[in-house]
């Protein structure tokens, strides 16, 4: 098949949507498909264009047999709702250069739009109709729902317009895929038929991410002592995570000198967290940058306890991709989730983590106390077993490929 993927985020971004889109594209290319990607310069989660791409305009590169068409765009250093809108639309306008090229010269069988941002689909839908190609909308995050529920957009008329635009694009799609059962249900609620939806969860390569002993971790290189108990949050430092409770928990444990909180990552909320740590004069919170993907097993082995945090209002809008890596590494995760959400149900059913009430520092402290004083090995074994059985990269991508062929 001739596959065209359209999305803002792509490899070599180490986390989030770009990581998964990059792995999907490269896997499809390995199966013999001709894969092209229209995307931006990598910038996430730092919200800064990566060093090797600074100063570049439109250019093409080939990464692991995938032809990648890069477009310049506006990347704000401080993310606000208005700046994010400009950021997204600057990419849409910039990408038109390559859409004209594809319309004139490229044969296309399938167009895959990666959302968010959902409005990328307008160009994809128009192009797919002209080329008589299948249009697949893959939803990593229900952007409009999140904007409403997190209070990022409060104008009801504007929200109504956005929901109508989203529904139009979903109706125009040959199929709509998304990453969790909870998000599938929300797609159904938008009056999209069951026959049109595809469950396409985020995966993990359990041959690259796996349990390691502490002496192969990054514990010593990060400057921690053998007796230190490490509580790790790794990934995007953004608004959906509700990381304020992490700082409150750290303050509670500040008198226990061997309990250390390690924050690895970057994002729009990092400066706020650093300011909170400084204001409270906490000596038990450490910040480190994102680590290379091939060192992820070593990073995850550093932790005694992993934190998978998100706000109540983000329930079932986002399935935390960091959890897949923690499970593959056989880690013990404290997961904030409400009863009735797919995240809560799956963690409880497979006994592969400890569930915590979202946005409650008190409950988080209790959960950490429990984890520090109990045997965690049975839960860690369950985590690894689940990853091996249900999150196989090969199985998930092969299933999705079959859906693309048979639609």
Automatic annotation (TrEMBL):
Locate the Glycosyltransferase subfamily 4-like N-terminal domain: which residues?
Answer: 15-203
Q: Does the keyword Transferase apply?
A: yes
Which residues constitute the signal peptide according to the record?
A: none
Care to name a GO molecular-function term for this sequence?
A: glycosyltransferase activity
The UniProt keyword set, sorted, is: Transferase
Task: Note one Pfam family from the annotation.
Answer: Glycos_transf_1
Q: Please report the stretch or stretches of sequence annotated as the Glycosyl transferase family domain.
A: 219-389
The residues that cross the membrane are none
Query: Know the name of this protein?
Result: Glycosyltransferase
Q: Which organism's genome codes for this protein?
A: Solitalea canadensis (strain ATCC 29591 / DSM 3403 / JCM 21819 / LMG 8368 / NBRC 15130 / NCIMB 12057 / USAM 9D) (Flexibacter canadensis)
